[in-house]
Amino acid sequence: MSFHLDYFSLKGKTALVTGARTGIGQAISVGLAAAGAHLILVGHQDNMQETQNKITELQGTYETFLIDLSDVENLKSNLQPILDKYKIDILVNNAGIIYREPAAAHDVQQWNRVLDVNINSVFTLCQTIGNQMIANKSGKIINIASLLSFQGGINVPSYTASKHAVAGLTKALANEWASHNIQVNAIAPGYISTNNTEALRNDEERSKSILERIPAGRWGQADDLAGTAVFLASRASDYVSGHVLVVDGGWMGR
Ligand code: NAP
């Protein structure tokens, strides 16, 4: 059958998004719901109201689960109630934290926390839900990487290490699972106006130098990521595998 616009539709699909309460995770959740998916919103804090309201406005459906992703040891068992209830078609590993401190003074506990939330939990989520997808012979996994999956960044060594690892894991899993009809890809957002980048936007000098390098001439908004997520979650991207797609207003091309 030749291409049809319905290839972008997510009707009948179930999508799990981590870090769905704010920023990019909220925008991707709402985007996937707009494309027809039922959403499993995974958050940390008990106030996901804004995301829930936005999905309800679209006549979308959701269920919310609160899981602390820094508790990697118990993550598999914490995911079990979701796996018992749902067949997950789309997994978006979006939750992530950043700790800004030069390498020489970087606190080891913070280093470990960043790696736990940004990569160790991502591996457990991919493995646990990936096994269900292997059994179902289909699935889409979208990991949220970063420009710091390619570049060194400034004063964020744990974050940079974790995001390089996210890109590596994406490619490793794509190699193993493409033959199971599971497409594993990543989105690398540029500089997006969310809580994650608040400190940068409050620093007049950094903020100005960042803006000067963005060919699009503006910071990204969380909504700028939604269309790319829908594409990578949909049948339209069935032959896209192991790709890290930058959505950065042209930053990396400069
Ligand atoms: P954000 O608003 O700070 O979102 C981070 C999300 O992660 C929050 O919803 C938070 O949930 C969740 N989270 C943090 N710790 C958690 C934990 N222990 N357990 C469960 N969830 C936890 O920032 P954002 O910019 O949207 O970040 C989303 C992703 O995009 C991150 O992976 C980030 O690294 C990546 N990214 C962002 C940018 C950018 O410019 N903003 C650029 C590149 C990549 P709670 O609020 O419920 O704690």
From TrEMBL:
Biological process annotations from GO: bile acid metabolic process
What GO molecular-function term can you cite, just one?
NAD binding
The EC code for this enzyme is 1.1.1.127
Listed Pfam families = adh_short_C2
Question: Which Gene3D superfamilies does this chain map to?
Answer: NAD(P)-binding Rossmann-like Domain (3.40.50.720)
Query: What keywords are assigned to this protein?
Result: Oxidoreductase
Broadest EC class assigned to this enzyme: oxidoreductase
Q: Which InterPro entries match?
A: 2-deoxy-D-gluc_3_DH, NAD(P)-bd_dom_sf, Sc_DH/Rdtase_CS, SDR_fam
The entry assigns this protein to a family as follows: Belongs to the short-chain dehydrogenases/reductases (SDR) family.
Q: What is this protein called?
A: 2-dehydro-3-deoxy-D-gluconate 5-dehydrogenase KduD
Whose protein is this, by species?
Lysinibacillus telephonicus
Gene designation? kduD
